[in-house]
Amino acid sequence: MELCRATAFSWTNSISPSLHIPQPFSMCETKRFRVCCLNNDSVSAQSQKVNQMTVSVTGATGFIGRRLVQRLYADDHFVRILTRSRSNAQLIFPVKDFPGIVIAEEPEWKDCIHGSNAVVNLAGMPISTRWSPEIKKEIKQSRIRVTSKVVDLINDSKDEIRPKVLVSATAVGYYGSSETQVFDEQSPSGNDYLAEVCREWETTALRVNKNVRVALIRIGVVLGKDGGALAKMIPLFMMFAGGPLGSGKQWFSWIHLDDIVNLIYEALSNPSYEGVINGTAPNPVRLSEMCEQLGSVMGRPSWLPVPELALKAVLGEGACVVLEGQRVLPSRAKELGFPFKYPYVKDALKAILS
Q1: Is residue 235 in a domain?
Q2: Which domain holds residue 343?
Q3: Which pLDDT band holds residue 70 (cuts at 50, 70, 90)?
Q4: What region holds the NAD-dependent epimerase/dehydratase domain (predicted)?
């Protein structure tokens, strides 16, 4: 059985533009089928093989993408990383640790997407940076350009090799900001810059072939130790300088990294996951409570607020993301029965920082 596994994963770590990537089957798998009636282990192995997916992922080197690729690989799915820099991707996914993963630069994306069961689109420049007119343009274009390319490659593929599902990231910035409103998937879009970005992002994804199931995941603030907003907040608390950002009254719609990865993972294989799904925990909190809980878990005070002026000096116009906020509920995920591992921020922070 180990020989069969080695054969199925014996792809090179890169591909050429003209190379047709074979589907993951071999003579060994034919032999495995022949013995499947002899014992329960063989039956189980064959059943697992039937459920294996070939998934192409953009944004695989990002905060969410890294964990998603690790999860897919650990579950024996075939992963094709669509990147602009093979060398950067190889540093994050070295062949000695991830044998069999395909890493492809843009000229090779077509060969990867054609024949994949699914595509996950996570690419986009991070918004948690100081905005300038040039940066704002790149924030939008980085999302629209990659999404448009992925959609065109899916649409150009023949029916028999076309992916069956596209899981495309978007953001809760779609709703705009408010201290009083409650937003769910039925809420209208806001009127600010981020809402505009999200509308165009989603519209581009929805141009995909009508026979492809589309799940649009509107992602909130993702909490994890090695990236995202929390990685920037922890050093402040370590220096006893942590506290609410701005007034602290703004809503903070968050989700644990494991939960957003699990939500995307479920959307890949579950046909019920279609349309817009908010990728946020069921219990958003005021930012003051978030900081209080973080300070408690870290054993640090959280009473000293970060002045709005100081925040704008660091992030410029991008400060509106944390200064305004919104209360977003994952109504669709709850309706689908998605099992949130971390529904409460205190438990999420404990798990991250323990």
Answers
A1: yes
A2: 54-353
A3: very high
A4: 56-272
Domain presence at residue 13: no
Q: Give 164-207 pLDDT, tens digit per residue.
A: 999 999 999 999 999 899 999 999 999 999 999 999 999 999 99
Number of domains in the chain: 1
Query: Does some domain include residue 33?
Result: no
Closest CA to 143 of 192, 179, 196: 196
252 φ/ψ angles, rounded to the nearest 5 degrees: -125, 100
Q: Between 132 and 68, where is the model more confident?
A: 68
Return the closest-CA partner of residue 221 out of 352, 53, 74, 89.
Answer: 352
Helix (H) or strand (E) holding 214: strand 213-219
Confidence of residue 111 (pLDDT cuts 50, 70, 90): very high
Burial (CB count within 10 angstroms: exposed 0-12, middle 13-18, buried 19+), residue 269: middle
- 41, β-bridge pairs: none
Residue type, 145: R
Helical segments of the chain, H only: 2-8, 27-34, 40-50, 63-74, 86-92, 109-113, 133-155, 193-205, 228-238, 257-269, 287-298, 308-315, 320-323, 331-335, 345-353
CATH number for position 181: 3.40.50.720
DSSP-based three-state secondary structure for 251: strand
Residues in the chain: 354
Measured between alpha carbons, how far is 62 from 58 in angstroms, rounded to an integer? 9
